[in-house]
């Protein structure tokens, strides 16, 4: 298992992003975790990231601006565009090997937007991210962000985790319509509302991430 490093990526005088990065072994993927507004890097570092590292996968987790242990000055702007820009810049600075973004709730939306702005990713995992138009979770009301996104433009393989009874996603038909718009999509449905499936089903969650990474490896080998 590779060493785990914790450092700060200095974006400007006001922002220093706390980053926890471990490189993969044997050319495997790196899972890049993108938080919801209510979670931090510690959410992933509790069980999920260590379990992946034991299987020789890389992990990269970090706190957004003004979140967790990230340094945040009084003049820092907390808006969705800045969050997306921070993701792009952290990835540029850290250069994770074969990155697979894993975004929880609005973190998945941020990840999709970051890819659209040039962030490198071999794939993206959306964890309880999809919403009907003009809907958002209670935990994300503190940040002004439109959930509208041109999902048909997502140009990387996509794995969608969702709950069988998610009260936050808007109408089921709206979510089904979004799923149809994603070009290269696999869907996994977990019991319950899906809001904390990574903590309710950590072993299954890790196993599904690894299975998807192996699938990506097979796809890459045939290209």
UniProtKB/TrEMBL annotation:
Residues 31-151 form the AB hydrolase-1 domain. It comes from the Bacteria. Pfam families: Abhydrolase_1 (PF00561). SUPFAM superfamilies: alpha/beta-Hydrolases. This is AB hydrolase-1 domain-containing protein. It comes from Granulosicoccus antarcticus IMCC3135. The lineage of its organism: Bacteria, Pseudomonadati, Pseudomonadota, Gammaproteobacteria, Chromatiales.
